[in-house]
Amino acid sequence: MRVLIAFDKFKDSLTAQAACEITATALETAHPDWVADLCPLSDGGEGFTSILTRASRGRLIRATVTGPRGQPVEATLGMAQLNHLPDAAVAMLRLPASIPAGASIALIEMATASGLALLAEEARDPWQTTSFGTGELIALAAAHGADAVLLGVGGSATNDLGLGALAAMGLQFLDQQQSSISPPAPHTWSRITQITGAIGKKIPPIRIACDVSNPLLGPRGAAAVYGPQKGLAAVDLPRMELESKRLAQLLYTRFQKPADTMSTPGAGAAGGIAFGLMTATHAQLLSGADLVAAWLDVESHLAEADLVITGEGCFDDSSMSGKGPGSLVTRALALGKPVHVFAGQVRLVAASPANLELHAITPRGTPLPEALASASRLLTSAVNATFP
Predict the structure, then answer these.
(1) Which residues, at least 6 apart from 308, have a Cβ–Cβ distance to it below 8 Å?
(2) pLDDT (tens digit, 9 = 90+) per residue, 304-319?
(3) What's the rounded Cα separation, in Å, for the pair 271 and 184?
(4) Bridge partners, residue 152, by sequence
(5) What values do phi and psi take at 194, rounded to 5?
(6) pLDDT tens, residue by residue, 204-216
(7) Inter-residue contact 222 to 126 (CB < 8 Å)
(8) Collapsed DSSP state (helix, strand, coil) of residue 221
(9) Are residues 198 and 107 in the same domain?
(10) Count of CB atoms within 10 A of residue 377's CB?
(11) Which of 5, 34, 45, 138 is in the most buried spot, having the most CB atoms within 10 Å?
């Protein structure tokens, strides 16, 4: 029996790699004759850089950058060679023809520099947070000679339209007295009247791994949908929307872009950093789930598997809408493979397809802090009970 074990992270609890290893150990104990094939997944958030860098035999560079509340944080930059990637992944990047096959690509995970997990709950406030550190990582990638940048934007703590990142890359945000405001976090926006400066000439083409379709503004926009989990009070949403629209207009006026850029599906990703980078750097959005699947050559892993095991912290209907584990489930079922999903919580309203078994590993009534702290034990127990 060959088993493909391909988990995404259990948020605030287990990394994707750890979940895969825990499951493999449990299976090895009960079924020593089974062959485990580990393939940790990422949706562009925590683990994105390490997983893709490891898969492409790249190297990791550690750097101290500006965290979401201005504090120094240790972040990681990955560097890989395009000729070490599957052809399908390279094709999905849609890089300029001038970039050679042996060129280098930097892998950046917004969560390590500007992530929500870097802040205690009481410090989460999108008026105060900045993506400046993510821009520092992009500039660092350029300094290391990257020919392209792939940015994963899951797990952000910000709603700053990526203006902080753009400030780190060369833009200047001025008040009426022509004084520079840096970083341009939302609590400073009312003072900003002009955007000047230029993006550094060495900044390479940027691709954004993204699986959300939210526009920048409106009821499905960045602030309305994701603001509450980042600490935005409901009473402050109208003001955030108005200020976001005004700064967005300043930005696309500066770069002579059409106003409908704000309505582009995905422009609201990660507090609007997708909008900011598309407007100022010609960045392009890519399907994160499809790109990661191609990068990790998931199709080959699936073809060889007799059984597929996957999961994440919470498996719900949104998981089946293009996200990592859900995308894997869809692919596996299409090939007739039996699939087991293990998750902290299962909230699938739609009927489960045939050949799919869902397992909620957390007993009902377990307080969240206890569940998070016990995830390793709970996952092991669930796997043991399912495959005795």
Answers:
(1) 3, 4, 6, 302, 328, 329, 332, 337, 338, 339, 340
(2) 999 999 999 988 877 7
(3) 14
(4) 109, 209
(5) -155, 145
(6) 999 999 888 899 9
(7) no
(8) coil
(9) yes
(10) 11
(11) 138
Which residue ranges of the chain lie beneath pLDDT 70? 321-323, 350-351
Contact between residue 267 and residue 253 where contact means Cβ atoms under 8 Å apart = no
Q: Choose among 173, 168, 3, 144: nearest CA to 76.
A: 144
| Judgement on whether residues 197 and 65 belong to the same structural domain of the protein | yes
Cis-peptide into 40, omega within 30 deg: no
Structural domain of 175: 48-289
Helix axes 16-30, 375-386, angle to 10 degrees: 40
Could you tell me the strand order of the sheet in which 72-81 lies?
Answer: 59-66, 72-81, 104-109, 148-152, 206-210, 284-287
pTM: 0.90
Whether residue 222 contacts residue 198, with contact meaning beta carbons closer than 8 Å, is answered with no
**Tokens found for residue 76:** 């990681």
**pLDDT at residue number 179:** 95
Ramachandran class of 368: left when φ > 0, alpha when ψ lies in -120 to 50, beta otherwise: alpha
Q: Which of 106, 78, 89, 45 is nearest to 295 (CA)?
A: 89
Q: Is the dihedral of CA 62, 134, 78, 321 positive or negative?
A: positive
The structure tokens listed for 329 are 């489930």
Select from 245, 271, 289 the last residue of a domain: 289
Contact 159, 240 (CB under 8 A): yes
Token output for 382: 């669930």
Structural domain total, the chain:
2
Rounded Cα distance between 257 and 9, Å, is 37
C-alpha span between 209 and 48 (Å, rounded)? 10
Both tokens of residue 65?
A: 């950058």
Alpha carbon dihedral 210, 216, 218, 222, in 10-degree steps, equals 60
**What residues contact residue 334 under an 8 Å CB cut-off, 6+ apart?**
none
